[in-house]
């Protein structure tokens, strides 16, 4: 089975529809599936529910889909540096389900493992717990969190072989691995594809069974999410 497609539009062909749920890997601008996000923007798919740690920054990453009003709801950990995300949320234009970072990762991991829900202490006694089932274990309260299943997962990898076995690079591993397993279909963009057998089996982070389609997205421009400049020393 040939999993490699010529470009992002071809890899997403037949998978996009209005009102769908998408799990998107990455953290800020690190490890985000840039080419696949651009293809979704170009396709004009709307009323999207997107589960992602955050929504990039203004005009970059998932921020592009916010700017074009293609997103109906975000399931995220924080607004971050995205002012448009903040503006749409505060004005009531965008539904947002805030979720603690570790809980979000576990909800996606659980969904991918076929676990419909789990109990956690994170959020007990806070707004996060409102409307959720509370259960006591050994005298401690826990809240029920539901696993997340998506119609589509879009992720960014570093290197993959032709069968889809994939390696993430350093911190870009972040949310990509749990997001990959939570979707019914996973499409990955990677920087390099190598022949089967080239990768050390012990180094593979995501088995190819999870990856249905791939593209090579390189080369990439490294974008800076938040630039800090030290003041010039006095002469």
TrEMBL record:
SMART domains hit by this protein: CoA_trans (SM00882)
InterPro entries membership: 3-oxoacid_CoA-transf_A, CoA_trans_fam_I, NagB/RpiA_transferase-like
Nucleotide-binding among keywords: no
Keyword Glycoprotein: no
GO-annotated molecular function: transferase activity
Record Pfam families: CoA_trans (PF01144)
Keywords: Transferase
Protein name: CoA transferase subunit A
Organism of origin: Sphingomonas kyungheensis
């Amino acid at each position: 089975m040939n999993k490699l497609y010529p470009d992002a539009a071809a890899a997403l062909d037949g998978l996009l529809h209005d009102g769908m749920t998408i799990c998107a890997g990455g953290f800020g601008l690190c490890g985000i599936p840039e080419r696949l996000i651009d293809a979704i923007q170009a396709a004009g798919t709307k009323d999207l529910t997107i589960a992602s740690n955050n929504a990039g920054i203004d005009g970059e990453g998932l921020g592009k889909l916010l700017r074009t009003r293609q997103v109906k709801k975000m399931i995220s950990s924080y607004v971050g540096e995205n002012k448009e995300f903040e503006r749409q949320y505060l004005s009531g234009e965008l539904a947002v389900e805030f979720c603690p970072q570790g809980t979000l990762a576990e909800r996606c991991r659980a969904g991918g493992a076929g676990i419909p829900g789990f109990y956690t202490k994170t959020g007990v006694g806070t707004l996060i717990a409102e409307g959720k089932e509370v259960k006591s274990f050994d005298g401690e309260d826990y809240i029920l969190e539901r696993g997340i299943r998506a119609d589509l997962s879009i992720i960014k990898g570093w290197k993959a072989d032709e069968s889809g076995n994939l390696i993430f690079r350093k911190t870009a591993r972040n949310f990509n691995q749990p997001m990959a397993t939570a979707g019914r279909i996973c499409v990955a963009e990677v920087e390099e594809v190598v022949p089967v057998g080239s990768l050390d089996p012990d180094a593979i982070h995501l088995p190819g069974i999870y990856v249905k389609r791939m593209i090579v997205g390189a080369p990439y421009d490294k974008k800076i999410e938040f630039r800090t400049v030290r003041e010039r020393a006095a002469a």
